[in-house]
Amino acid sequence: MLKLKDIQQQIFELNAHAESYEHDFNRVALDVFHYQSQANLIYRQYIQEIKLQGDSIHHYSQIPFLPIEFFKTKEVVCGQILASAIRFSSSGTTGQLTSQHIVNEVTIYEKSFKKGFELFYGSPSDYCILALLPNYLERTGSSLVYMFDRLIKDSTHSLSGFYLNNLNELINTIQELKQRKQKTILLGVTYALLDLAELGIELTDDFIVIETGGMKGLRKELLKEELHQFLKHSFKVSSIHSEYGMTELLSQAYSKSNGVFQCSPWMKVLIRDINDPFSYIKNKKTGGVNVIDLANIHSCSFIETKDLGRQSQNFDFEILGRFDNSDLRGCNLMIG
Known about the structure:
Blueprint: H1 4-11, H2 21-39, H3 41-49, E1 66-67, H4 70-73, E2 86-89, E3 100-103, H5 106-121, E4 128-132, H6 134-137, H7 143-155, E5 161-163, H8 167-180, E6 184-188, H9 190-197, E7 207-211, H10 224-235, E8 241-244, E9 253-255, E10 261-263, E11 267-272, E12 287-293, E13 302-311, E14 317-322
């Protein structure tokens, strides 16, 4: 039996370009499953409720995925909650239950998002990083704010920073960066990027615009293609990038164009049948998004989300929307 530290090391040694990648990913995923099915009380109880025998699982596609709703009502964690644990929480409207992700070892989160960012964009020190995250900055417990706070510090650029509602200051900063021809990442929630775009600010090829989704009820929801077309036209850039992550995950997927996401090597997305959460569907068909995030070693790495998506042959995927409550199927055992 591998020690937990050995499993953790192997997670971040996974190489998506290696010929043995699928074999290696499967091996590590099974090691994580066997650990979590014993160490995580909530996950263990869920596996018992669906009457699954752990020794019958030989491939990651056979592993049961925990419905994401558990993070709203249970403490989904392996072993005891440490005094040093960080609790990340999701945003929500007044009176709505929000998800909570207990992270016993935040250094794993930092390793995951830093290494993931570097795989897609290179070193943060190559960029000025501007984070337009008003809704997230106005509350506590945001894992997205935690991530970009660290990346901003790693960028070391004097103009890197967060912006709340001070768009005029942000525009002045952008103008200065344009004059310097400085490589810049402008990341923002959807509605805030729309607010900025409507002010007539134009960018250059030195800028990468990353939207993280989210209208928060402040604007009419737009189709992703329609949103990206508007932002490209307004900012005068060739493409809009996207980031896919959530409170319950410690890893992110990124899209550099056309809304097609790629995962870090220790993360994988599977598409389940809408009417049967234990079955998967063929490429290019719409279904529910299941996420394997091996960095979630101390909580649960196998999560059944409420997102709708579709997948291509090489495991790239698109997010098409979310289930509404009337569409929910599957096992709601123990939730409540």
